[in-house]
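As described in the Methods, two query proteins were run sequentially through the folding procedure within a single session, without resetting any intermediate state between them. The first query and its resulting structure tokens are shown here.
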Amino acid sequence: MADFPFSQAPNGAEVKPRKKIQFGVALEPEVVKICCYAVLVGFVGGLVAEGLLELIYLFTNIFFYGRFSFAITNPAYNHLGLWVILIPPIGGLLVGIMVHYWEPTLKGHGIPEAMEAVLFGQSRMRLRVAFLKPLATAFAIGTGGPFGAEGPIIQTGAAFGSLFGQALGLTPYYRRVLLASGAAAGMAATFTAPLAGILVAIELLLFEFRARSFIPVSLAAAVATGVRIYFVGWAPLFPTPAFRLTSMNELWLFGVMGVLMGIIGIAMIRTLGWLEDFFDHLPVKRALIWSPAIGALALGIIGYFYPQIFGTGYDTIRDMLNDRLPANKLIGVSVAKFVALVVSLGSGTTGGVFAPSLIVGGGFGAVFGMGCHHLFPHLVSDPAFYALAAMAACFGGIARAPFTSIVFLFELSHNPNSLLPLIVCVMVADGFVRLFSRDSIMTSKLVKRGLIVLQDYSVPVLMRARIDQIMQKEFNSLDADDELRSVITRITPGHVGVIPVVEKDGSLVGIVEAHDLLKVDPPDHHFKMRELARQDYVMAYPDEPVDQVNRDMLLKNNENIVVVESHESHKPVGVARANDLLQLRRWLVQEETRETPANGSTGK
């Protein structure tokens, strides 16, 4: 195998594109049908998001205000006094009963369960999840749970996409696409943020960036956003002032704040992991029932002193982004939300971590901005600008979804001037968390179960090379009419390569290997090579991607490859075996490390 860059053809030869226009070359025609399915999934996902939010409002009104109403209300404004402490345990007990008796995957914030279905369950989710998850979430948040609705909405949308794919008899891959479409629809419809919905599906569920998946997902997110706009209009969920940097010198402050958000993110990941272990090993019978109630009781006590932690906290986020809270209030609410979130989620109840992480990051970010404004009054413009960037950095760090976070807060702010600080702060926070934490808040639970989850992905090396870059160009070939007794004198038993058998005009008939010649008894039999030639090989063309050839090998269960001139001429120009494909890993070794492969070369 020659040593040359991926972007060049062997010996500097230019690969000429095919002139014939073909349908379905770069995108499978089946994707058109999948897009139609994704549009339907997106529509249902939009309705699911709206329905769950309405259900949360209903339960909030019932439990905190004693009225049957779907009006948007904030549990922080209740007048229950000490009795408010007993409200959250009601929801915790109801969720615990549902988790214990009906569906264990209701426990948690939703996205890890969807990730597990994608990576280890062939994208299959159960019917009961689609019905019980929104109900359990409505009970948890409606009784004061310090969660966002987005995680459960994402899981519910994903469940519908998976169920729809199962009903249609789709392959596991296209079930994954519909599952991710439902998840993207849920995120987009919750916040009127279609781009964030697309990216959350790509970063946390698809683990790829390919047209056949992101096109359907994008359409689902767009349709779900349209459903959201139909119900509530175009008004942003979190309106903000027109933030602007005073100068480029201010960017370094956002970088420093990114480190602070990274520290907070690591603390959140590790504290939640410890509390999950603690509640899982509580010495009480039927811990799945009682643990959420115990955690909710702690939530009620915290909420008595800081009622702003109850519910989704959207009002608190708006206050942070508009400089309406003093520093002491910002710190108190952020710390209380941090503790309430990890205790409630660690105890086994259900709810999303997106909105709570915005409050935790936003409070500390706003205080950081206030401090910087006091020290550098001419450099810092608006402390709320720091709250915005810190919100994105906090979630980006704990979820390992930096692009989702950047785009999400950019969409919420509707402010192009926020983009550069968002990038700096989020990327610094994400990098800091990765330096000290192998797992994210989305994967830690799965890793504890012994599952391997990698959120980093790249183009597979098999898709970055053509078969003519790894084939053996020097090989033996045999005439189809050659007799065995003449051939055996020319081929040594030690030769283990693939030997093409060809006609007089050079066209391929089949293959033999050295050991095939020794199987015929007696060896001087008048066998001709065309009688001995085998058909267990994959025929490839020089410009074919190695990934496509490898796929054909798997489908045919063959490890021998014969590369021929073209579709018209089946004259062999090279041979390869499965082991030659594995040598491509050497390219990655040389790209990513300074080490040289054991044999000191890059190929044959």
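Immediately afterward, the second query was submitted; its sequence and tokens are:
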Amino acid sequence: MGDMLWAPPADVLERSRIGDYLRWLREHRGLDFADYDALWHWSVTDLDGFWRSIWDHFEVIAHTPPTATLAERGMPGARWFPGATLNYAENVLRMPGRAADDPVVIAHGQTRAPVTLTAAELREQVRRVSAGLRRLGVTAGDRVAAYAPNIPETYVLLLATASLGAIFSSCAPEFGTRSVTDRWQQIEPTVLVAVDGYRYGDKPVDRRAEVAAIRAALPSLRHTVSIAYLDPGAAPEGVLDWAELAAPTDEPLTFTPVPFDHPLYVLYSSGTTGLPKPIVHGHGGILLEHLKMLALHHDLGPSDRFFWFTTTGWMMWNFLVSGPAVGAAIVLFDGNPGHPDLGGLWRLAAETGTTYFGTSAPYLLACRKAGLVPRDIADLSALRGVGSTGAPLPAEGFRWVYETVSDRVQLQSLSGGTDVCTGFVGGVPLLPVYAGEIACRALGAKVEARSADGTPVIGELGELVITEPMPSMPVGFWNDPDGRRYREAYFDVYPGVWRHGDWITINSRGGCVITGRSDATLNRGGVRLGTAEFYSVVEGLDEVVDSVVVHLEDDEGGAGELLLFVVLADGLELDDPLRAKICRELRTALSPRHVPDEIHQVRAVPRTLSAKKLEVPVKKILTGVPVDRAAAKGALANPESLASFAAFAQRRTTDNTPA
């Protein structure tokens, strides 16, 4: 059990949006809940009652009402709100509690001066771009692709596309050509909107050659629109510029009513092996899920400025930009979070009056390792929430936030995924924060831990499963008419139950600890070990910058081999005293089972474009799978990092070859 680091204030029910919701349930539904646990149990038992309450409480704008809440409960194939028609963009652009001249988009970056859009300006931009897309022939069901960063134009394009019932898809411009075409050749977009380049820190990055290659690889394209972001100037021949797309017009802003499960956007799995999975999300499911999560869990409303460090290639961007649906202004940032130093994002939070600061666990741990004290370099008095995701945040990361950022903020570690475009587990204003622990299972998310034999367990490590449907589960995968790929991705192991691929421990009070991907398990002597706690210890050492650990099973049923690869601080070489120190720390902090058989130095750990470590491809390479089959290089931030693992595997094979 971790130390309690924060407790809800005595008047939390008067001050929070979940308190408002509980009062609403009493007044409008005659329901009274003693605590969060009781509310959660109701939310995952009475699915009709809970999700209809979200629809009604947030006064979803619908063109035709639903004939039911949940017509079919089985997974996959649950049918939510049949008969309803609505539009995600219409609900976001309502911006409850915001006056026309209130700032709702505050955008900073390293390529150009800051940009602010008021509520009226955002609606006007969406009106113009929606009309521009219509002039290009875009209609409901067409795909519009954005090769663009986290800037207002990308957000406006998403809302304009959704307003027409067309389908949006974005790739961050740091994605290489192959990564982009692997994604978009599957969905065949008719319109591409792309930047000419961007600035990362003080380094200009020209992307015109990549845009040309992407255009050449997408025969479905009818139009390309250029955003002159890096180098203001004329668009290339045969390409519209953004100003033409967003030209003044008398056309009113209208919203095409679409069914609840009509595709809103296509997100993609990281695609580390094989083609990325094109995950289709629907208007209604995303809207309801984000209303619930942003308002009731993150406690966001019209007085808030909501920031999450993300690119347009990560689902956290899609989550962030739903902020105006609950009245929150959003803070966008495009650039290198480490430039000119790690304090840059904290200073951005101060400058923009950010009230909720979202980031990744690796960023918080990097700040801790650098000895940063954010409250000493920035006025963070407006801050009341900090969010962390992307990887498990260990106890020392929690303590660092409370010691150096603020002892008043609620730190919410959450975990979920691209597959549902939300968190399954996270925080809530009603519950305290314990070091190293995710506070709760989210409302409407029936998360369980399952043991090896498939039975639910409490207080033990198990597979994270979801045993009841959620509205933001994918509508399906693109071009998967019989649903086979979709079923294989989540429902093959436990029929009718969503298997997410993470290890989770749920304790008796409902708190959760995620300990890594279940497909990257370290299985030593029959005991399953998660990788997250391993990294927490190893990377806690001053000498170690990064690390990756894999377990190679023994075909004979023996203990196998536990191999640790470390990236060391500049100028350091791995020697026997450092190996001994690492082993001693692991033995002391964790157990003798965690002591690796071998430790090797590498120059870099392979990571996805959203910074997740790639244990599984490393393991495949070490077991003899060729690099090109083990990982799709275009999905990696640093594909060159795989070479040292391939060389290591080759040396091992050579060394073990009989004379």
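Residues 119-135 form the longest helix (17 residues). We note this only descriptively and draw no conclusion about the first query from it.
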